[in-house]
Amino acid sequence: MHFGFSYVGFLFLLMLMAPNLIWSRNKPADYAAYAKRENKVLQWMERIGQISVTCLALLCSDLNIKEGGRFALLLFAFLLMVLYEIYWIRYFKSGKTMGDFYRSLWGIPVAGAVLPVAAFLLLALYGRSLPMLLAVTLLGIGHIGIHLQHRKEIRAAANAREMQRRDTDI
């Protein structure tokens, strides 16, 4: 691993953080209730992964564009980040409910979690960065795990509402 500024990592982080900053003012109304019930181990894994990925993305010059046969990995990682932006555009145009936030995108479940993790995973493979690979793995377990937990709760609540509606119809 070579230390130095990574303009590719910086670009990926910009693509990651810009919509998240906008989201911080456009959260679903009941998001806080779900966040309170998050698994603490997954939260720690997510936070450590976020800090590690951010630092490594900026400081690992191996992630920058270079000649070689792995350019397809970088291109595919970038395309996943473009899909991530599309995911956010769709969310911001929606009613901004928890259901909207956790809708799949073109068959990709919990796309808001899966797409950036997959993109940074490919970026780690492109740069042949074991520390980045480990950090992304930690981030992925925590971040995707939390999002899957929320999606499961949303589905359970929707099922309960449907059952209640059926009971009142009888």
UniProtKB/TrEMBL annotation:
The chain crosses the membrane at residues 6-23, 71-89, 101-124. Keywords: Membrane, Transmembrane, Transmembrane helix. This is Uncharacterized protein. The lineage of its organism: Bacteria, Bacillati, Bacillota, Clostridia, Christensenellales.
